[in-house]
Amino acid sequence: MNQDELKKAVGIKSVDFIQSNSVVGLGTGSTVYYMIEELGKRYQNGEIKNIVGVATSSRSQKQAESLGIPMKDLNEVDHIDLTIDGADQIDKNFQGIKGGGAAHLLEKMVATNSHKNIWIVDQSKLANELGSFPLPSEVIPFGCEKTFADLEAENLQPEFRLDENGKRVLTHNKNYVIDLKMGSIKHPHLLADWLDHQVGIVAHGLFLDLVNTIVVGYDDGPKVIECR
Ligand SMILES: O=C[C@H](O)[C@H](O)[C@H](O)COP(=O)(O)O
Which residues carry out catalysis (predicted)? Predict the structure, then answer.
C-alpha cells in the first residue's frame, strides 16, 4: 500500500471509535480528511446518529459541513467526548509532534478539552525519538525577531516557515510559524516547559502525555495501540 492508502485505511478504521450521541473533535490534515469523509458517510446512512463536531481548522470545518455533520464551536460545547487527529511524529513513549499543517494551536485547545484523544498515522510517522520532524511553534508577529533570536540563542535552529511565494506562512489566527530544526529532542518535557514560558510563543507542536490510543497504518492493515 502507498502512503495515501495507509492514511485512508486508518482514517476509516478510526471512525469505529465514534459513538452516537457524542461530541467529536475533528483534527486537521491529509489523514483526518479520510476520517471526516467516512464519518460523513456513516452519519448520512444513519449508522452514527446525533453527533456534534468541533473542528480544529477551517478546512475540517468546511469538509464536515459539506457532508452535513452538525458543527459547533469549542465555546459552544461543555465537553468533547473524543478527538481524532493526525500527527507528524510519535515516539516510543507515545509523545507527539503536530503542526506540520500549522493547525497545532487549535488542535491543542481541542485535544486538551477532550476526554479521549486518538491519533491516526501511517507507519512512517513512528520514530524512536522526536525531532527529525521539525518542531512547529506559532509565534505572534509582534516582536517575532526577538522571539526568533531567543530560540536561536537556545540553539533550537529556528526557521520561519515560508509559503511557495517566499512569504511567511500565516496561521488561522494570523500568527507566524517558526520551525525548530534541531534534529533530535532528547528531553521533550524540558523543551516543552521552556517553550511554554516564552511569551511570544502562542503554542508549540509538542503534544505530551495527551494521546490515549493510536491507529497505525501498516501494509497488512491498521493496528490499534492503547497508549495511556
Ligand atoms: O497542523 C497539522 C496537524 O497537526 C496534522 O494533524 C499533522 O500535520 C498530520 O497531518 P497529515 O495527516 O496530513 O500528515
Answer: 107
pTM above 0.90, yes or no: yes
Q: What CATH architecture is 3-126+208-226?
A: 3-Layer(aba) Sandwich (3.40)
Residue type, 216: V
Q: Tell me the binding residues for substrate.
A: 28-31, 85-88, 98-101, 125
d(CA 153, CA 14): 42
The residues facing 114 across adjacent strands are: 80
Q: Tens digits of per-residue pLDDT, 183-222?
A: 999 999 999 999 999 999 999 999 999 999 999 999 999 9
CATH code for the domain defined by 135-203: 3.30.70.260
| Dist. CA 75 → ligand 1 center (Å) | 23
Ligand 1 near 30 CB (within 6 A): yes
Measured between alpha carbons, how far is 199 from 140 in angstroms, rounded to an integer? 9
Sign of the C-alpha dihedral, residues 220, 25, 118, 136?
A: positive
pLDDT band at residue 152, thresholds of 50, 70 and 90? very high
Beta carbons of 204 and 164 less than 8 angstroms apart: no
Ligand 1 midpoint to CA 28 (Å): 6
